[in-house]
Design a protein that fits this description.
The chain is α+β, with helices and mostly antiparallel strands. The protein has a domain of 64 residues. The chain is built from two helices and five strands; from the N terminus they run H-E-E-E-H-E-E. A hairpin with a 5-residue loop joins strand 4 and strand 5. The longest helix is centred in the first third of the chain and has 22 residues. The protein starts with a helix and ends in a 12-residue tail after the last strand. About 15% of the residues have low confidence.
Length: 102
């Protein structure tokens, strides 16, 4: 392949892989437990600019977000005080569930 053909081929492969990832990714908004500016914890949807609910304690925020994620069959991301993700939980349909060993 000459260089132009090689570049076009790489772009096509990249676009195809990006499309397949988009198809299999969940379209339901995930729930995030994040620290807020006042020292408490906020629960917010992945696409929302405002918090769904605000809590003083992280455990209360996690409990609330877990219930919302379970009802919505979505993902739950729990963040640390510095904003990094400490834990991810999935309550949706797993495309690759673990197999029972009997």
């Amino acid at each position: 392949m000459d260089s132009d053909a090689a570049v076009k081929h790489r772009r096509a492969v990249h676009a195809e892989s990006r499309y397949s990832k988009e198809v299999f990714m969940s379209k339901k908004p995930s729930q995030h437990v994040v620290p807020n500016q006042k020292g408490g914890w906020s629960v917010r949807k992945s696409e929302a600019s405002k918090a769904t609910r605000i809590f003083e304690k992280k455990n209360d925020a996690v409990d609330y977000a877990r219930n919302v994620a379970k009802k919505g069959h979505s993902e739950l991301y729990i963040h640390k005080k510095d904003g990094t993700i400490s834990e991810k939980r999935s309550y949706g349909n797993d495309p690759c569930p673990p197999k029972d060993k009997k």
